[in-house]
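ok so i was messing around last nite and threw this chain in just to see what happens. nothing serious, just curious
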Amino acid sequence: MSYKLPLFVAATFLGGYMLISNRQLRVNEYELKVSKLPENFVGKKILLLADLHKKRYGDNFNNLVNSCIAAEPDFIFFAGDLYSRDETDMIPKLALMKRLKHIAPTYYIFGNHETDNMDNAEALALKLTECGVHILRNNMEQIKIGEDHINIYGTQLPQRFYRNEDFSHHDLPQITKNELTKLLGEPDRSECNFLLSHTPLAFRAYADWGADVTFSGHCHGGVIRLPFIGGILSPERKFFPRYTKGIYELNAEQGLAKLAVTAGLGKFRLNNPSEIMICTLERQE
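result:
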């Protein structure tokens, strides 16, 4: 009998901690240094969101929207998985994106859950385009401030890079520089090139392709985060994925390439609060 009370207390504590972890929403600020950053973009703030899935954050997403308003971003990037593949009612998500668009210019790409439910994705994309959200589907737009501009690309990766037909994850093909070139074309390496791509796990390919900065989500911060180790699981069921949360860098032909990964907003997590990621742009000297 003596061991039952400590076990009960421990289980209660763990259950409460898990509940709190799942409900937390933090605004985390990062400095993002970019070597080819045009002068007029210095000090501008990018708000990065991803992986909302079925999470609501209050009535009409009010807690999420109010946190975004308070951050005063210059641009909002949504790096995929706005909804889960089995969701059918897109009206709440459309309303959310409309509200985000009124905060700052908003750029959106599909994640693996959108490409698992393309009927909803196509219908939502049409409505979002009509209301002024920029949807990047293997194409590029320019973000302009005065005489300066940044090229922003967005991927719509084929589903084979995320899962097999039977929803297993073994022997998935690697995303390569050549594959990205087929999808996106060649970037102008003399200019500043941003890339929105849902999965961060192909950072080497993004850097080799020519992205100065890539913005991603997908890994949900590694689901469970351990002190001094970080995230422990990817959506592909791989342990200890390399890129789960924060800013990373790699040497590339165009200079020091950066990767910004948000821990995302939705699904189960432990010791891993949901995140609104704020990246303040600075020039890499």
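not much to say yet. The chain has a mean pLDDT of 92.
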